[in-house]
Amino acid sequence: MRTPRARHYLMCRPTYFDVVYSINPWMDPKKPVDTPLAITQWERLREVYLNLGHTVDTIEPVRGLPDMVFAANGATVVDGRALVARFRDAERIAEGPAYHDWLRDNGFPDLRTASVVNEGEGDYLLVGDLLLAGTGFRSDPRSHDEAQEFFGRPVVGLTLVDPDYYHLDTALTVLDEQTVAYYPGAFSPGSLAVLRRLFPDAVIASVQDAAVFGLNATSDGLNVVLPQNATALADQLRDRGFNPIGVDLSELLKAGGSVKCCTLELRAAG
């Protein structure tokens, strides 16, 4: 029997969401964006979390920061300690201070802004006692040592090699404290070997499900919220005893984001 655990999430309403620049292969400023639809889809995701019994806080969106909706990138929060993001791209740099101030003002005084490029839970995923840390496109590999020193937890570096999966949370999702799902084609041979060694019973996503960002998902140990088009992955999860809940975030996918990108987990001390 799988047991859900209530989570505490931070989200940012996509009030100013748009695609006006391109910093990943998904972003095309020439394609129209329906911001009201993005807001409706985001509100549905938030409603799903609330109906599952999770706590959802929101940070005020900032005009001129269209990607601030992707709250997962803002920080990594473990044991009540927050390592705030330092973004690679100039278009997103101002998001870091906004998340820093919110965390400082909302019960996370033990925080630090990363000294090198570190894009938060986009590239840092907690599995049990381990932090899986992505690099290759965004977060600097030197950020892995910094995170290990700050959190006092082992950090396992994983190298991404496909630009479509530019953050770790686009290619791997944590299902419970021992189980992950991932797309093998996103990782270097050495990193793939590490994943196979650490997680021999992992759920392996198909190229089709990875391509609709099926792995950009969240889990409370039972309920897995994921893009609704990842149907084969949902069947695999159901076979493993999870409860997949499909949502439509197609408008946010135009910027290379989906469920997990919109969701920063706030893990308290203890």
Automatic annotation (TrEMBL):
Q: Which residues cross the membrane?
A: none
What are the entry keywords?
Hydrolase
Q: Which InterPro entries match?
A: DDAH-like
Per the record, the similarity remark reads: Belongs to the DDAH family.
NCBIfam families, per this entry? DiMArgaseDdahMtb (NF045659)
**What is the name attached to this protein's record?**
Amidinotransferase
Species this chain originates from: Streptomyces rhizosphaericola
> What high-level taxonomic lineage is stated for the organism?
Bacteria, Bacillati, Actinomycetota, Actinomycetes, Kitasatosporales
